[in-house]
Write a structure and sequence with these properties.
By secondary structure, this protein is an alpha/beta fold. The strands form two sheets. It has a seven-stranded mixed β-sheet, with helices on both faces. Strands 4-6-5 form a three-stranded mixed β-sheet. Helix 3 links the parallel strand 1 and strand 2.
Length: 249
Amino acid sequence: MLKNIIYYLLNLSFHDFDKELFKILKNNNNITIFDIGCFKGVFFKKFYNSRLFKNRKIKFHLFDINPNVKKYLKDYINKKNIFYKYLALGNKNKIQNYNFNTSFEASGSSMANLYKNDKSWILSRNLFLKFFFQKTSGYKKIKVPVCTFDSYVKKNRIKNIDIVKIDVDGSEEDVLMGMKNSLKKKIIKSMQLEITGNKINFQNKEKKIIKFLKKNNLYLKDSKKIISVSLFSSLKCTENLFILKNKLS
């Protein structure tokens, strides 16, 4: 119960670009939204439950390799307009190890090793959980299927995507490398992207991603620091909103 409260409190500050994203969808009657790293669906549910889209055609493509997500979204994944995949998006089609944080699955579970290898992050979070009498059982490796964004889009004949949200705790560059063709074709209208990295080289990673997306006509509209990740750790994280050039206002 406590972990759920912490997770939802954190998400109150994480996803705060709603005004801009709703503006993009304003006059669109055929909407497609990708939620990569959907977990319990906090992001996509804002659009699914909004009265603004009640009489419009809206499709959701959800991706997460957390083995518990199917249980969390049991009331949604059988809907005709919701397509959930137990699938990681990356730079190649393959099978890969996933670091599942069994202590607190909402944070640090990733294909990347950033959180798993950060001793100060793990120690501080474990102490916090123990203070509230929560179990701290550590990480578990799970082999999961991976495919590229481009492969999925091609296979499902998707021609237009209004919003792509990416929250993958450090493996976002792999996701982006797997969507080069979709970016080149300008089928993505906006992207909400969480960027995570070590503090020592975070600026370089952030600049590299911003430059890559700008080259593909997605421009940085806004950026917010996620303070909770930086506390008592060597990590840094930002939430970023990118908009296709011709959609900028």
